[in-house]
Amino acid sequence: MRICVVGTGYVGLVVGTCLAEMGQDVVCVENDEAKLRSLLEGEVPIYEPGLEELVRRNVREQRLAFARELTGVVARSEVVYIGVGTPQSENGAADLGTVMAVAADIGASLGPHHTVVVIKSTVPVGTAVQVQEVIAQNAPRGADFDVVSNPEFLKEGCAIDDFMRPDRIVVGTGSERARKVMAYLYAPLVRTERPILFMDNRSAEMCKYASNAFLATKISFINEIANICEKVGADIREVRRGLGSDQRIGFQFLFPGVGYGGSCFPKDVKALRHTAREAGYDARLIAAVDAVNDAQKHLLGKKIVAHFDGDLADRLIAVWGLSFKPRTDDMREAPSRVLIAQLLEAGARVNVFDPVAMEEARSVFGDAVSYAPSAYRALEGADALALVTEWNEFRRPDFKRIAQLMRERVIFDGRNIYDTEILQEMGFVHYCIGRRTPWNGAHERPPARAKDGL
Ligand SMILES: NC(=O)c1ccc[n+]([C@@H]2O[C@H](COP(=O)([O-])OP(=O)(O)OC[C@H]3O[C@@H](n4cnc5c(N)ncnc54)[C@H](O)[C@@H]3O)[C@@H](O)[C@H]2O)c1
Questions:
Q1: Does any domain span residue 114?
Q2: For 137-152, how does the pLDDT look when each residue is reduced to its tens digit (9 = 90+)?
């Protein structure tokens, strides 16, 4: 099949490349000149493990190409994906400006054959109807097309595997013809017991928001339980074991931390709340999930400020991990942004390191922070280390070396990856999430400062 994918971001590029990998003839359209240029040169402008190799192979084998204009590409395609961004607008709603502009262009470019227009972007309930109307308004008379709602569930960091081996594929359509096309297209992905779930467009659109809101709820739930644990002297690690062992609950998405970030959960939770409000329903649980997360993103910064008695002037704080989660360079809504803003506001100097997001960080923080060439170099002369993103290389560092590099031995562990007892033996003060340590929690005051000597 000839396929067009509009938008080559974290979703569009993965979808296009994976479909090409399955033998389809794919052209991805991108209107950002810099991104397009790097793609045409065989460079992938985002960090996603395995993607560059897959892109290069499929380009080389002529199943994948890139273009600036969608007109000619849409005209030749039987399936056209819309994979552009749907960012949050000021009132919390999803901004559909780009989706609708692309829909209009697609309408004006439709070929004489039947075309399935697939909405991959995360869009509010009712968008498929609007896209249908916009395409029809711009299409030649009698144009033959269907609009399918096919939300994407991939995770950045393992996007290729998620797309190739999905838990389920959700396809919303009322058209039997479109259903057949989608079933044929996705058959290679569901050869085992994986289901394609066909349903109406509105339900498909809602599936994506319900899934993200539920996952966000799990995170805010465990964060809230962790915060209570800190206050009452329970240990969230033990509580997690007791909680997750219940098969009705499970262990996934129950790690406490510094809140969820990224390009999806924050905006999708807000957009769902907005959709509900527009429909006359006050989604209180969804609102609470958002509020808990917002507070959680400030938690590590609050601990740091409290530790230094509110005075961070002349303090140097090292921050490990800037992307919103490991295995991606995506810093959209990353907890690191909130923390670093707090630290700068409190007068601290900040030295940052991330294994892949340094370039992105420079565009976010500019000259406000300094950029270390390695994790250890970030620690030189630091008064504290804040661990924000749990990249593997941060999990078992050389604490003796860390102790020698830092001015003070204080670690704020935003992901609970270190062992308090081991660190304590080495003279570190270890703050974490959801556990009462000699320093952490409500009851003890922080020690004056960490002790000398290993
Ligand atoms: N990132 C994820 O993990 C993820 C997962 C599931 C769903 N989604 C959803 O998928 C959609 C895309 O997300 P993303 O993270 O890939 O966004 P992104 O911002 O990384 O990518 C969007 C791309 O579309 C391009 N674009 C914008 N207008 C265009 C136009 N007129 N013609 C051609 N290209 C155009 C942009 O330049 C950009 O490269 C969003 O709705 C998002 O909510 C994202």
A1: yes
A2: 999 999 999 999 999 9
